[in-house]
């Protein structure tokens, strides 16, 4: 075997170590149900649905947002849950999601999971995930808006969902969800918030 | 309400009619299992995994392939299964997948599902799906390669999977799967085929 073939083989082994590990995201369960309420959603299919949201709702993004970068972020955004699990936005009275403890655990998970990749891919995909988490660039802000609005739609369609589970108030919906959705997609939030009036007034 | 607001509202209603309908892809079951063999995969999470394949295996594509277009195709490629169901590649001794009957049913499903969208999006996304199905452009050929190779990896990881279910021979693996993977990603197929020798020699 030539050196280049050995390097190619090693690279493929690393790429598939990551892709096979990523498969486990299909077994991470979320609090939100499917639209038909039949079962809770897993984080793999959630990530697909969000990428489709980005493709279909691109016209809701602010000028300059690059939808293909948004899609890439959304494909990756939950991988750390393989180690950490999903932390529902309304759980622990809203205190668990985004806590320093959760962030530290997710950073460690990112080290391990992206670390399975060849170095160039590790650095590129880790940087995309960090950008999503920081929620500062226009692409990341829009991606976060979609991540927040999709469970709202699932709750609307399934008859209340996690709003009932966690006794969510209108103020909590606005502060935990609305602010984030409106930041990246203001017209979208105005429309969706109108739909929620049957639950929250 | 101004006309422009009414139009915006109508557009959002159409976009979410599609996105909520798309949710049903999470309930379409495939023959292939998860990597850990714990259950069969659904077509929603499969679509996510394939999009991640495209992101990670971009260096296996031929020069000129636009990975972001490949990702978009893969996000959409199975939506017609909401109406038609998944047709396993090795089922009915390989005769069902891609049959004229299946193709006609999928085309009708595409009319209905993409038809939920505003006209501009309907045309754009339908065209991407048609391009994937035709498997003629470099982007579609690479997308098809990934769609064929991912179940091979799941079978390898889970101890045989659908090869055992359908008594697949080496010749069938090569003709139904290998030719398609090698067309878009020859080095990838050479490597994966080597891994299958324990099953097929």
Automatic annotation (TrEMBL), chains A, B:
Pfam families according to UniProt: HD_3
HD domain location: 22-189
Transmembrane helix found in the keyword field: no
Alphabetized UniProt keyword annotations: Hydrolase, Metal-binding
Keyword Hydrolase: yes
GO CC annotation: cytoplasm
GO molecular function: 5'-deoxynucleotidase activity; metal ion binding
InterPro entries for this protein: HD_domain, YfbR/HDDC2
Highest rank taxon of the organism: Bacteria
Signal sequence range: none
Designated name of the protein: HD domain-containing protein
Naturally occurring in which organism (per UniProt): Gemmobacter fulvus
Species lineage: Bacteria, Pseudomonadati, Pseudomonadota, Alphaproteobacteria, Rhodobacterales
């Amino acid at each position: 075997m030539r050196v280049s073939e050995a390097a190619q083989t090693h690279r493929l082994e690393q790429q598939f170590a990551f892709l096979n590990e990523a498969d486990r995201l299909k077994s991470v369960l979320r609090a939100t149900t499917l639209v038909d309420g039949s079962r809770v959603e897993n984080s793999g299919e959630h990530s697909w649905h969000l990428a489709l949201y980005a493709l279909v709702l691109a016209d809701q993004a602010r000028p300059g947002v690059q939808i293909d970068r948004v899609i890439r972020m959304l494909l990756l955004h939950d991988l750390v849950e393989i180690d950490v699990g999903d932390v529902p936005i309304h759980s622990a009275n809203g205190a668990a999601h985004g806590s320093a403890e959760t962030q530290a655990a997710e950073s460690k998970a990112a080290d391990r999971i992206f670390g399975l990749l060849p170095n160039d891919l590790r650095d590129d995909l880790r940087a995309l995930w960090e950008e999503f988490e920081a929620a500062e660039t226009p692409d990341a802000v829009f991606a976060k808006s979609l991540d927040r609005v999709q469970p709202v739609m699932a709750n609307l369609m399934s008859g209340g969902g996690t709003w009932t589970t966690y006794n969510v108030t209108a103020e909590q919906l606005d502060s935990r969800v609305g602010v984030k959705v409106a930041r990246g997609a203001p017209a979208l939030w105005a429309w969706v918030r109108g739909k929620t009036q049957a639950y929250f007034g």
